[in-house]
Amino acid sequence: MIDGMTASESPLPDEDDNPASAFAWPDSAAARRQWLAHGHVAAILDRRALPVLPPALPEEQRDACSSADPAGFLCRRQALRALAGAVLGRPPESLRITRSESGAPLLPGSGISVSLSGRPPLSAVLIADKPAGIDIEAIIGADGIPWNMLRAVERQGLEALPETVRGEAFSRLWSAKEAYAKALGQGFRLPPESLVIEPGGKARFCPAGGMSDLPDGTVRLARLEPGQGKAVIIALALLST
Questions:
Q1: Count of CB atoms within 10 A of residue 62's CB?
Q2: Measured distance CA(131)–CA(218) in Å, rounded
Q3: What percent of the chain has pLDDT over 90?
Q4: CB-CB contact of 78 with 96 (8 Å)
C-alpha cells in the first residue's frame, strides 16, 4: 500500500514533470481551459507572493476573526471565488461560500464541488465538476507518526521502511486519506483507519462493520518544496461517481 501510493504520485491537474507548475495560480482564461480539459482546477498559493485576488467580502472578514489563521482563511476564500467565478462566468463578489453540516465549504447554486486546505504560509484551493477533496500536509518526522490511527497493514508497511523516509511515507498516506474524506463530504468524522488507499491510488471506505455504500475515489499526490519552507505533500481526490 505504501509502495502503491509512491507509484501513484503524479502532479495534477496536468501530467507535468513540474508539480509547482501544475499547481500554479491560473488567470481566468487558463482556469477555463483547465476546467474544460480536466473537470477540475487546483492551485497552491503562497501568502508571501499572492496574485491579485478579489477583495474579501464583509462576512469573510468577520469570520476570519475566529480563525486560527485569519490571513490563510481570507486567502482561500478569495481564491476560491476567483476560480469559481472564472469557470462559471460570474463576478467573484456575487458568490457566497457557506458550510455543510460537517463543516465542508460549499458554493450553493453553483453545481460545482469545492475544497480548501492550508498549512501556513501555503493554501490549497480546488474546484471540480464532481465531489472532490484537496489536502496539504507538512512532512513530519518518524517520531510523530500516530500509529494507533493506522490499519495493521499500514503500520507494517511503514515499519518496513527505513526510518529516514518513514515520516514522509506516513505524510503521503495521511494526506491521501484526508483528501478522500473531504471528497466524501465527511472529513475525519469517518475513522481514519476506515479509509483505505490501495496501490495505484484507489481509495475506499471500509468500515469495521462490513459493507459500505460510499463511493470509491482516486487520489494522486505531489511533493512540493516551496522557497524558504519545508517540503509538503499535496493530495487531490476525485470520487468515482
A1: 10
A2: 11
A3: 76
A4: no
More confident residue, 49 or 228: 49
Q: What are phi and psi of 129, to 5 degrees?
A: -90, 5
Cell of 73: 482563511
Write out pLDDT tens, residues 141-177.
Answer: 999 999 999 999 999 999 999 999 999 999 999 999 9
Domain range list for the chain = 2-239
- Cα three-residue angle 125-130-136, rounded to 5 degrees: 30
| Signed CA dihedral, 101, 107, 110, 116: sign only | negative
Beta-carbon contacts of residue 217 (< 8 Å; ≥ 6 apart): 180, 183, 184, 202, 203, 237, 238, 239, 240
Beta strands 217-224; 113-119: pairing state: unpaired
CATH match of 2-239 with 3.90.470.20: yes
